[in-house]
Amino acid sequence: xxxxxxxxxxxxxxxxxxxxxxxxxxxxxxxxxxxxxxxxxxxxxxxxxxxxxxxxxxxxxxxxxxxxxxxxxxxxxxxxxxxxxxxxxxxxxxxxxxxxxxxxxxxxxxxxxxxxxxxxxxxxxxxxxxxxxxxxxxxxxxxxxxxxxxxxxxxxxxxxxxxxxxxxxxxxxxxxxxxxxxxxxxxxxxxxxxxxxxxxxxxxxxxxxxxxxxxxxxxxxxxxxxxxxxxxxxxxxxxxxxxxxxxxxxxxxxxxxxxxxxxxxxxxxxxxxxxxxxxxxxxxxxxxxxxxxxxxxxxxxxxxxxxxxxxxxxxxxxxxxxxxxxxxxxxxxxxxxxxxxxxxxxxxxxxxxxxxxxxxxxxxxxxxxxxxxxxxxxxxxxxxxxxxxxxxxxxxxxxxxxxxxxxxxxxxxxxxxxxxxxxxxxxxxxxxxxxxxxxxxxxxxxxxxxxxxxxxxxxxxxxxxxxxxxxxxxxxxxxxxxxxxxxxxxxxxxxxxxxxxxxxxxxxxxxxxxxxxxxxxxxxxxxxxxxxxxxxxxxxxxxxxxxxxxxxxxxxxxxxxxxxxxxxxxxxxxxxxxxxxxxxxxxxxxxxxxxxxxxxxxxxxxxxxxxxxxxxxxxxxxxxxxxxxxxxxxxxxxxxxxxxxxxxxxxxxxxxxxxx
Length: 660
Fold this sequence. Notes:
Belongs to the 5'(3')-deoxyribonucleotidase family. Residues 1-21 form the signal peptide. By secondary structure, this protein is an alpha+beta fold. The chain contains 18 helices and 25 strands. The radius of gyration is 29 Å and the shape is globular.
């Protein structure tokens, strides 16, 4: 949102209410002000001029206590809202109020001197529009000169014009609902351990011999490090190895359990083969979702336990069997309801609060787009989580349905990725929100119910009828939303396989991948830019020295120099070889430090050495857009045209790329 001001003096109200700060403090971390222009344009989040209105009750006066005509003499026509305030009431509720509707911008800017994040750290709370609706704020760089913190930016792989999108859909778990790994993944791990020490759970769900009974006495003493595993890894089920590969599927980092493999072992196992391995199922398992981190960690613990305690696990239980049992145990933990019951009791402990989600949904709906939710979670759990995210959990979270006003269609129990196949014959049932009762439908259309059953959709305001379903397939969804072309749908999810790959590859939907790890990744990238320049220099030095060595060796071998010349060339060759080794060691050490700065075992999420990682390659292939949080959509116009940067091939970098 932009405010155009023509004040000749600084206006300051009492600090308890509104502060308009001008200029830069003496020890500011921000760059000096830009030169004035004939029509200065000022961003509310710009460091040159900050507007703050605190959330606490105001004791002296507040702009919100004045009507528009009372404020007119003060601001007159010299204050202009350029964009971001809707002239019409929200499509769902004209008087709807939502938690944090004006707190859309990043609260954690990066170093302002670097020119990446120029938002002020303070929050902004503007008066409501004349019709009582909360204003929506977005920034679209560089149109209005208000630059979004790079950690909150939406990155584009393929051009996407939002004007062509008629429906925006969302996954729930790890997309709208960002779980806290330190509590949620630890809960999943402990639940898995507990189930495998529960004889009733073993008998009821698996039968003997189909769980981790062979190490149950020791499991309770194990602990979980939620920071250790990352997405994008590959588990070698047969060998008990955990791998990180580049985009060409070359193994760059490998561990056996928690023990790092030497370069020789790594190359001997995965490099010296006549036929390239595909590294896919059934011999390998992909860790491509945050739900799988606890599973990978437990597998590594079992591998180490088997290796370090020969005889305690029978010979018939190999690494592949252990992975199968881990997978089954984790599935049980998610399936038996105990995990979700714990989250439902205290959502705040396990889910990050994001006050920008509701304003984002309101903004999309006001722009005329349909919104829908497709989740594998069932209705009871979905309702509790969405109530928490929408700020309705102060009431009984299981009996409030106010959040339904933000969607046109909600589909629970969707069984993705099978949901994305039209040939999937799953029935589509209607859901009665108050009871969770399932009702038969005719491809989404209501059917007469036998008896006195009333299929009434309920929302608190009763003026926005959102349809809630369970099951079905994508053809049902297209019909419910009157979708004419799959390219009119943008779907936002976190699972590269279950959400993004299938919806993109099978349907041709436009896709946005949520990568929560991206915030830290981008932060560290910015802090490491000098180290990366050093690495580039050392690489070029190695190339230069090796070229000189090759030239000298060629001269010694084929040009037959006389004795003195030969001795001189040999001495020069020895010096160059020593210099090459010194540069190689310096480069290796700098590369190791950079690797560990991102993540000690696995390094940068989207890189493996100098190549994009396999995970990054999948992001490039299947995600039209990607960002750290789904609510970052609120920082951009709903009609924005997302454009990628220009692609470069290697031969172009030295010609075109050097000038960028």
